[in-house]
């Protein structure tokens, strides 16, 4: 996790701050408030018997639940992910929803939360090389979606 993310959590390690970070990450992954809420509940439910989650562990659980859920219900065609973007989503969020779930998870962890490639490999249960490939692929796709082509 980036030093800025760690610093933010260490400065005010309240449940509200942790929940806000987890929820915003869930929204980036799902693109939908209702789905983000369900995802966060599932991730936090894994900690019910162990007290409050550590920030990094909560993010790991959130991403693992997202990956498991999308692997079990991945659509065969169209936009990847389980949600259709709403009118209020930004162009970046809409572009994120066009990524395959593994790419989306890796790029959100790297570019939003500042996780290292090694940390992302641990979270996603992939090799570090696979993480590098997923992030490069995701960034390429995002660039194609977000940067208008020259005429």
Describe the protein.
The structure is a single chain. By secondary structure, the chain is mainly alpha-helical. The protein has a single domain (3-146), classed as Butyryl-CoA Dehydrogenase, subunit A, domain 3 (Up-down Bundle). It is built from 8 helices and no strands. The longest helix is centred in the middle third of the chain and has 19 residues, at 55-73. The N and C termini lie far apart (40 Å).
What are the key terms here?
single chain; 151 residues; mainly alpha; Butyryl-CoA Dehydrogenase, subunit A, domain 3; 8 helices
What is this structure, in a nutshell?
With 151 residues, the chain is an all-alpha fold. It has 8 helices and no strands. It is globular.
Task: Outline the fold blueprint.
Blueprint: H1 3-11, H2 15-30, H3 33-45, H4 55-73, H5 91-96, H6 101-111, H7 117-124, H8 128-146
Helix pairs in contact: 2-3, 2-4, 3-4, 6-8, 7-8
- Unreliable spans are 75-89
Q: How many domain units?
A: 1
Number of H- or I-type helical stretches: 8
- Counted beta strands: 0
User: CA-to-CA gap between the ends?
Assistant: 40 Å
């Amino acid at each position: 996790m980036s030093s800025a993310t760690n610093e933010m959590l260490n400065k005010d390690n309240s449940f509200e701050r942790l929940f806000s970070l987890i929820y915003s990450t869930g929204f980036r992954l799902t693109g939908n408030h209702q789905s983000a809420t369900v995802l966060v509940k599932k991730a936090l439910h894994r900690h019910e018997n162990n007290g409050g989650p550590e920030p990094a562990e909560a993010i790991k659980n959130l991403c693992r639940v997202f990956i498991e859920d999308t692997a079990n219900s991945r659509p065969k065609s169209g936009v990847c992910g389980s949600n259709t973007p709403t009118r209020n989503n930004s162009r970046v969020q809409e572009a994120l929803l066009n990524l395959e779930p593994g790419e989306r998870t890796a790029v959100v962890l790297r570019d939003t939360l500042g996780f290292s490639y090694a940390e992302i490999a641990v979270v996603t249960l992939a090799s570090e090389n696979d993480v590098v490939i997923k992030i490069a692929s995701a960034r390429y796709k995002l660039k194609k979606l977000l940067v208008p082509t020259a005429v």
